[in-house]
Amino acid sequence: MGRHRAFELATRVGSVELRNPVMAASGTAGHGAELAAYLDLARLGAVVTKSVSVDPWPGNAAPRVHEATGGMLNAVGLQGPGVAAWLAEELPPLLATGATVVASIWGRSVEDYRRAADLLAGAPAAVVAVEVNLSCPNVEDQSAMFAHCATSTEAAMAATVGCGRPRWAKLSPNAGDLVPIVDAAVRGGAEAVTLVNTVMGMAIDPVTRTYRLGSGGGGLSGPAIHPVAVRAVHDVAAMRPHVAIVGAGGVTDAVTAAELVVAGASAVQVGTATFADPRASGRVAAELVDWCRRHGIRDLGELIGAIHGHRPT
Hints:
alpha/beta; 30% helix
């Protein structure tokens, strides 16, 4: 029984209590239930679902992924069935696993975010929060990314209040200064920020003189961006110590997870590692418990923001 309690290693992200600080990241495990064949999803902190928009969306042309040094490039383009279909068809199998669920939504306009969030108002209680993916082109602002503009970030977050759940703003590391974007997200109602989404990247085949991804550019993820994520979490935690942070970017083991926590994250997400090992999120969760035990850590609060000498709340 003692070991079971230790495995829980409970944490809190804003008002959301999680049994474990390790989550499966959005977009890296389909709609979530696919991972149930490899690990007990009920023992993760949460499963963050693939981002869905209010309407079905076809995504980008193939090829959509390309291996890069220390990670991968992807340009899937947020393909999805739309929120209504997701609620009816994709969410029930995930809930049947006993998983705690964080729903992820995206949009191409403020109204898209509003409609998507409103559809989530009646979702089951196991959907404990909504992660608002702001790394999307804003067609109302010449396709500039929402997360690159404080005004757009605040407007999109404010529009999602209808979901009736705590909201987390997933932000882009490509913004020059994250702090004003974080402030805007909080003004819009975000209880927490997820740092970070992918770093913009590109690959070109010099022989054929063509792009290696169907859409040209894409997002770089994996170990290559881990130091970027650590810096983003660190700097936001230092400047805004009372904003809850979820760390994401290159988490592959207990050490990389703990590094983000010490930088200021209350929880972490495992994403790209899942492509190589579908058990990755469960493995990291178990390894983190063992790591804490070996280092005499009895409460995750001893680690959160420890580099700053405080724990964000």
